[in-house]
UniProtKB/TrEMBL annotation, chain A:
Keywords, ordered alphabetically: Nitrate assimilation, Oxidoreductase
The organism's taxonomic lineage, starting at the top: Bacteria, Pseudomonadati, Pseudomonadota, Gammaproteobacteria, Oceanospirillales
Segments passing through the bilayer: none
Protein name: Nitrite reductase small subunit NirD
Short name of one Pfam family: Rieske_2
PROSITE patterns listed in its UniProt record: NIRD
TrEMBL record, chain B:
Upper lineage: Bacteria, Pseudomonadati, Pseudomonadota, Gammaproteobacteria, Oceanospirillales
Natural source organism: Marinomonas sargassi
Protein's name according to its UniProt entry: Nitrite reductase large subunit NirB
A matching Pfam family: NIR_SIR_ferr
Domain BFD-like [2Fe-2S]-binding residues, every copy: 431-477
Cofactor(s) the protein needs: siroheme; FAD; [4Fe-4S] cluster; [2Fe-2S] cluster
Length: 110, 852
């Protein structure tokens, strides 16, 4: 299967070590730029299913037991950036592959 | 009063005469054991107040009111059907008819009677002892009288150099009198101290400008020449003084027992057995009026034990009895440590003595040991009580002394610490004598899930009486946790094997300026939502750089990152600083206009400011541009930092105001507004003791009094309210600010992350007294460091919003989406009471349905 990559923004739009929000195909996406991580860019849904608000891009990036996660700014649940899996509850939120090519930031359209 | 009316209950009547600390404790004990179900209980107190804390009576002069000292406001009695009458003196017991006669003429019948009548101060029958301006030191009314008199005069003298006498001398000194103490015996505290100890104490007290006369008998008191009284002494000398306070010991208040023919001691006191029953099995006596084995016990702890024994016996529980009590004491008198354990005078047969004296530091210690050197029989400490806890445990538990027992009173030299580990104590060791808590009780509490000193305090009440055992308690609790295999990890998180305090010191000493540098040198991994904001906060406390600086921005929790308070729907609220709650109409109008323009929900906060809700991320810089242009600064409501200084209008407007609380509040808010701290900090300033600003419920509370500013620290409202501790009184402005600087910086330096000052204080070993020593006496030699650190923070203050508005890089992060100009469609408002509020889930569904 060939992956369709969609250009979302420039690298300069991102904040090193933190998240920003983007709108992709009518869906809110939280993009995290983590230079220390192998993939560097992560994309998960911006929607916090516990707080019921679009806030995950504004959470703190936390590295817990080898996994890159974001802690929700509302009630502090952790979501794994690569998979969208919640560490505290049996919930997984949407996640997408993402990449940095030159100056451009892409996410995969499934 | 209805005491004579026929009873609606058939329960037997239990009457308690006396409502001092012990009488009150008895009622508490009875209620705790469910005895109010078995008995109809009535309490008579002679004083106008219900029971109050007589042990801390002197604090009445340093700012505490009658309500602070009260042991109950009557709720406990009311809730459990206990009838009580104050101002009610019982004058006679008719034991044949089981009736009491009251001064009012009423009579009351009883089935069981408890006498807790306490004691009265002994006034030596010196000619002139009834002159005006002579007092005793026992009740709140006595203290009121003394205070009134002290306002008019300049010299005060205490007759009696015992424990209570020195306490009273301290009080006179605090009232601003030139104070003298006259003691009949050859030394101070003759009961507790030996000759040498007494003389060291005398020197120390004289160093504090209190004149001490020992071995001095007063022959008569007559009119003075330069003062109100002249005391003529037996040796022909005299002393002129305006106020005389008799504190020459106590005598059991046993008149009722005498009148009713109960068995008494030769020198007074109502004879009791181990169940605290008098010679009449239906009459009990407890506390200072009771005589057990020919001894009167003039301390509160034995009184409490008697109360417990009597309550137990009345309810058929004979497992508790009174079999004497240890009279060892540890006190701070006029700021001098004094301790006395067991056989302080070395009267035991064949005993041997170790003595250590240091004339430079002014301290004296003596240990009395058994003939074979194996057991500790007694001890005297003057000048340094840090040796007391360990010595007391050796004494109480009859433990074998270490090979070189003298190490227990020698100053800690390199190597050998002399303190007794909690491990070495037997299970029966009494840790808290006020509430009779043993090491076993603490082990049990920990085994049942208590995980901290706070938990154990809550369960066992240990260290909640006089508090003298707090350090030992912590030691025992930590030891118990350790032995259960509970790892008491103080690491802040998996990335740093340090406490917050360690990290603070590392950052300061190694001059570390960024999270990355700290992580590289002292951490591992990449950080998390625990360590990042904690380190961000410490870096701000120490270096006070702009929090949205590139290397700091990822450390900030969302509120700090966007300089607003995130609400449940992802929008923010905005709180500009309004120092002291004082605002011009012009500025008020600006707030109104901005709120109107952006349709923000507007509410007055508890901290006397205005909160504007419902701003979206991109609106924040727009709104702040308008606010900064109008002269507003960030209120830092989002930060772990100073929030507000609440205030009343003070003497400027208020007819009761004593000082200008408004100016003080504005100045304090402007001084401390930049400080990032372990948690939020709230202040208040009241212009008089009516306390309209509620300063005693704040981290820092300031109250104006006639003599200056009183400073309260570590109060809290919220979930676990705590009254602030009175830290210092009658301060001038400069000293007040100096003390606040130091308290706040010491807190910032040593507290755990997200620990409010109230919890910090509760966990501080040595508590208030320790904090006073650090801040006022510079015990740790760090005051200049604390002062400099605070000056730096004050000097480098910047309004974070002003800086942000000037920084295009920072502004870029306030976009809703990086690739789209639209809004978050999930943010929906509806109207309520003419303002917006977030729509509920149901309302959102309905709105969508309507649109669809």
């Amino acid at each position: 299967m060939t992956m369709q990559w969609k250009l979302v923004c420039k690298q300069s739009d991102l904040v090193k070590g933190a998240g920003v929000a983007a709108m992709v195909n009518g869906q809110q996406v939280a993009l995290f730029y983590v230079p220390e991580a192998e993939s560097q860019i992560f994309a998960i849904s911006n929607w916090d299913p516990f707080g019921k608000a679009n806030v995950l891009s504004r959470g703190l990036v936390a590295h817990l037991q080898g996994e890159w996660t974001v802690a929700s700014p509302l009630y502090k649940q952790h979501f794994v950036l690569s998979s969208g899996k919640c560490l505290e509850d049996d919930v997984t939120i949407p996640s997408w592959q993402a990449k940095l090519e030159g100056e451009n930031v892409y996410i995969a359209e499934s | 009063m209805s005491a004579n009316s026929p009873l609606s209950t058939k329960k037997p009547r239990l009457v308690v005469v006396g409502n001092g600390m012990v009488g009150h404790h008895f009622v508490e004990q009875i209620i705790e054991k469910g005895g109010h179900e078995n008995f109809h209980i009535t309490v008579f107190g002679e004083e106008p107040h219900l029971a109050y804390d007589r042990v801390h009576l002197s604090e009445y002069f340093t700012g505490k009111g009658a309500a602070d000292l009260a042991m109950t406001d009557g709720t406990l009695y009311d809730d459990n059907g206990v009838q009580y009458f104050t101002n009610s003196l019982v004058t006679e017991i008719d034991r044949d008819n089981k009736q009491l006669l009251l001064q009012s003429g009423d009579s009351v019948s009883y089935d069981k009677l408890v006498l807790a009548t306490g004691s009265y101060p002994f006034v030596p029958p010196i000619p002139g002892h009834k002159r005006d301006n002579t007092f005793v030191y026992r009740t709140l009314e006595d203290l009121d009288d003394i205070r009134d008199c002290a306002k008019q005069v300049s010299k005060g003298t205490v007759v009696g150099g015992g424990l209570l006498g020195l306490e009273a001398a301290n009080a006179l000194k605090n009232l601003g009198l030139e104070t003298s103490v006259v003691e009949f015996a050859p030394r101070l505290m003759p009961v507790q101290l030996d000759e040498k100890g007494g003389s060291v104490l005398k020197e120390m007290i004289e160093g504090l400008d209190v004149t001490v006369y020992t071995d001095t008998a007063t022959q008569e008191i007559v009119d003075g020449e330069s003062s109100f009284h002249r005391m003529n002494f037996a040796d022909g000398t005299h002393l002129e003084t305006d106020l005389i306070l008799f504190s020459a010991g106590i005598r059991p208040q046993d008149a009722l027992a005498k009148q009713s023919g109960l068995e008494m001691g030769e020198r007074g006191g109502i004879t009791i057995n181990n169940n605290c029953q008098t010679s009449d099995e239906n009459v009990y006596a407890i506390g200072e009026c009771a005589l057990w084995n020919n001894s009167i016990y003039g301390l509160v702890a034995p009184g409490y034990t008697m109360a417990k024994a009597a309550a137990g016996h009345l309810l058929g529980d004979e497992s508790i009895s009174f079999t004497g009590a240890d009279m060892s004491t540890k006190l701070k008198l006029l700021g001098c440590d004094v301790g006395s354990i067991g056989d302080a005078h070395a009267k035991s047969q064949g005993c041997k003595v170790f003595v250590y004296q240091d004339e430079i530091q002014q301290s004296y210690r003596k240990m009395v040991v058994s003939e074979d050197g194996q057991k500790l029989l007694g001890a005297v400490l003057v000048g340094d009580n840090s040796f007391y806890d360990t010595l007391l445990q050796y004494y109480l538990n009859a433990m074998d002394l270490p090979e070189q027992p003298q190490s227990l009173i020698l100053p800690a030299m390199d190597g050998a610490p002399a303190a007794l580990g909690a491990d070495a104590l037997p299970a029966t060791a009494s840790i808290c004598s006020c509430h009779n808590v043993t090491k076993q009780d603490i082990s049990d509490a920990v085994a049942n899930g208590a995980m901290s000193v706070g938990d154990v305090k809550g369960i066992t009440k240990a260290a909640t009486g006089c508090g003298g055992c707090a350090a030992l308690l912590k030691n025992v609790v930590d030891n118990e946790l350790l032995s259960l295999g509970v790892e008491v990890s103080t690491d802040i998180c998996e990335h740093f094997a340090f406490t917050r305090q360690d990290l603070y010191n590392i950052i300061k000493i190694e001059e570390i300026k960024s999270f990355a540098e700290l992580l590289e040198k002292h951490g591992k991994g990449h950080g998390c939502e625990i360590c990042k904001p904690a380190v961000g906060s410490i870096l701000a406390s120490v270096w006070n750089e702009y929090v949205l600086k590139k290397e700091h921005i990822v450390l900030q929790d969302t509120n700090d990152r966007f300089l607003g308070n995130m609400q449940k729907d992802g929008t923010y609220s905005i709180v500009p600083r309004i120092p002291g709650g004082e605002i011009t109409p012009e500025k008020l109008i600006v707030l109104g206009e901005v709120a109107k323009e952006y349709k923000l929900y507007t509410k007055i906060t508890g901290g006397q400011r205005i909160d504007l809700f419902g701003a979206t991320l991109p609106q924040l810089p727009e709104i702040w541009t308008k606010l900064v242009n109008a002269g507003f600064e960030t209120g830092q409501a989002y930060g772990k930092s100073l929030r507000t200084v609440k205030s009343c209008v003070g003497s400027t407007w208020c007819r009761f105001g004593v000082d200008d609380s408004m100016t003080m509040a504005v100045d304090l808010e402007n001084r401390y507004k930049g400080l990032r701290s372990p948690h939020k900090i709230k202040f208040a300033v009241s212009g008089c003791t009516r306390e309209c600003a509620e300063a005693q419920s704040k981290d820092i509370g300031v109250i104006a009094t006639e003599g200056g500013w009183n400073l309260y620290v570590c109060g809290n409202g919220g979930m676990k309210p705590r009254h602030g501790d009175l830290f210092a009184t009658d301060l001038d402005r400069e000293t007040l600010i100096k003390y606040i600087d130091r308290v706040l910086m010491f807190y910032t330096k040593t507290a755990d992350r997200l620990q409010r000052t109230s919890v910090w204080m509760d966990g501080l070993e040595g508590g208030l007294e320790y904090l006073q020593e650090v801040v006022i006496e510079d015990k740790l030699g760090m005051c200049s460091e604390l002062d400099a650190a605070m000056d730096y923070v004050v000097d480098t203050f910047q309004c974070e919003w002003k800086t942000t508005l000037e920084d295009p890089e920072a502004l870029k992060t306030f976009r809703q989406f990086v690739n789209y100009d639209g809004e978050d469609e999930n943010v929906v408002f509806v109207e309520e009471r003419d303002q917006i509020r977030p729509a509920t889930e149901e309302e959102k569904q309905n709105l969508i349905a309507k649109v669809g």
